[in-house]
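Long-time lurker, first post. I've been practising inverse folding by hand and with some scripts of my own, and I keep getting stuck on stretches where the structure tokens seem ambiguous. Below is the full token string for one chain I'm working on. Before anyone asks, I'm not after the true native sequence, just a reasonable design that respects the backbone. If someone could post their per-position residues I'd love to compare against what I wrote down in my notebook.
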């Protein structure tokens, strides 16, 4: 980890973990991949290690991220998918040459065509976004109930009633806010 940069929020779904690299979108937004190096770090922790990243590749990554966010949000509220977002996702998916590799232990890994090919890594993320937006995977897209967040997340809970993108951040903050509001309403006499 590089010091001085905001931490990553790690989720179990690649595409929505990626959109989570910009958090608090409706509040004081936090950019978690502010430099090409931070995108390299993020890709490494998500099994898509690359050697390097250019400013142009970071821009492309952010464009893909915002497109996934827009399309996933539309899907969550059952709105029409924005055509421009769909185009970016499809272009990114088509541009990459990543191969799924089965390890001797029976795990799937991604092999990129070259270690400098950020586009390959982005194609894996785009394909992941396509599979959740298309409803191919077991789960449901929903929007975080925190008003300053409203991130699209993939709810795989049995009841499909998860309210927050992340229990440790948005979930906890909301609980605390409710607790403080109750205290203001019912102050304990001194
Ligand atoms: Zn949230």
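-- Answer (accepted) --
I ran through it position by position. Result:
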């Amino acid at each position: 980890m590089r010091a001085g940069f905001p931490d990553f929020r790690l989720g179990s779904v690649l595409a929505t973990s990626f959109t989570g690299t910009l958090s608090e979108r409706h509040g004081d937004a936090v950019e978690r991949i502010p430099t090409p190096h931070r995108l390299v770090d993020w890709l490494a922790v998500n099994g898509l290690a690359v050697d390097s990243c250019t400013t142009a590749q970071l821009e492309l990554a952010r464009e893909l991220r915002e497109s996934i966010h827009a399309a996933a949000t539309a899907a969550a509220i059952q709105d029409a998918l924005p055509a421009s977002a769909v185009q970016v996702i499809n272009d990114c998916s088509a541009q990459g040459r990543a191969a799924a590799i089965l390890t001797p232990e029976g795990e799937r890994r991604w092999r990129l065509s070259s270690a400098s090919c950020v586009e390959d890594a982005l194609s894996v993320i785009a394909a992941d976004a396509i599979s959740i937006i298309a409803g191919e995977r077991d789960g449901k897209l929903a929007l975080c109930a925190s008003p300053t967040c409203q991130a699209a997340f993939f709810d795989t809970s049995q009841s499909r009633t998860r309210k927050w993108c992340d229990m440790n951040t948005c979930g906890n903050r909301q609980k605390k806010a409710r607790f403080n509001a109750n205290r203001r309403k019912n102050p304990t006499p001194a």
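A couple of notes from the structure itself: Residues 14-137 form a domain with the Jann2411-like fold fold (CATH 1.10.3300.10). Residues 55-76 form the longest helix (22 residues). Happy to go over any region you disagree with.
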